[in-house]
Design brief:
Layout: E1 2-7, E2 10-15, E3 18-22, E4 43-45, H1 51-54, H2 57-64, E5 67-71, H3 72-75, E6 86-89, E7 94-97, E8 100-106, E9 119-125, E10 128-132, E11 152-156, H4 165-175, E12 179-183, H5 195-204, E13 209-210, E14 218-220
Parallel strand pairs: 3-4, 4-5, 5-6, 10-11, 11-12, 12-13
Antiparallel strand pairs: 1-2, 1-14, 2-3, 7-8, 8-9, 9-10
The chain binds nickel (II) ion (NI) and manganese (II) ion (MN).
């Protein structure tokens, strides 16, 4: 599987020709590695309705025909009016998908959609597990992810709107993945961070490897 970082909280997971796009905030993100007009997707997962996550979802879904996943109130609410293919789930539920499976995981954050909850996702694709935390503060539930044996955890470190580096170290400890890729930093002045400082702390503690990706950078896992 190839994990490509497109900037902010946007990642493209690619395995066996299937493209899974998460939180495609590209237009308006000066650090984005791709434009909304060029990114390809078979599935789009949206963690919550804030602009820096919903982003270009509707435009990309309309152009590519991708199916968009979100929590029930979001998928059946604002998304249903867009004339796009949607799929839904809710916190704690795992469902089979054409590429493997996905579990909707709790996130402590506003959803931006009345009645909806913000979420993270645990993807299983080609026998590998990737956790995208979405926007969230540090939550005790993350320790439950240790049982999932996560290969790669995508964790926010920006602080201000989400957990910052210190709490993201604790999150890495609780989740115990093989690797963390930090996200949700540097896009705006208030979330400026040095991801290499975070990497050093996590690796010096012997928690796991941290792979710092610049937008456009990618990691291949087998
Ligand atoms: Ni948010
Ligand atoms: Mn955000």
């Amino acid at each position: 599987m190839r994990i490509e970082y497109l900037g902010h909280a946007c990642f493209l997971l690619e395995d066996a020709g299937v493209k899974i796009l998460i939180d495609p905030f590209l237009t308006g993100n000066q650090l984005a590695a791709k434009t909304a007009g060029e990114v390809e997707a078979d599935y789009i997962f949206v963690t919550h309705g804030h602009d820096d996550h919903l982003g270009d979802t509707y435009a990309i879904a309309k152009r590519t025909g991708a199916t968009v996943y979100a929590v029930v109130e979001f998928a059946d609410g604002p998304m249903a009016e867009q004339g796009i293919k949607t799929a839904k789930g809710n916190i704690g539920g795992r469902q089979k998908t054409p590429f493997g499976s996905v579990k909707f995981f709790p996130a402590a954050h506003g959803s931006g959609v009345p009645g909806a909850l913000a979420c993270g996702y645990v993807f299983e694709i080609g026998g590998k597990k990737v956790y995208h935390a979405g926007d969230t503060g540090l939550i005790a539930e993350m320790s439950l992810l240790a049982d999932e044996r996560i290969d790669v955890a995508l964790l926010p470190i920006g602080d201000f709107f989400t957990m910052g580096p210190e709490d993201a170290v604790k999150a890495a400890e609780m989740i115990a993945p093989k690797c963390v890729i930090p996200m949700h930093y540097d896009t705006f002045p208030v979330i400026k961070q040095n991801p290499d400082d975070y990497k050093k702390v996590v690796e010096d503690k012997g928690i796991c490897e941290v792979k710092v990706l610049s937008p456009g950078g990618s990691l291949e896992i087998y």
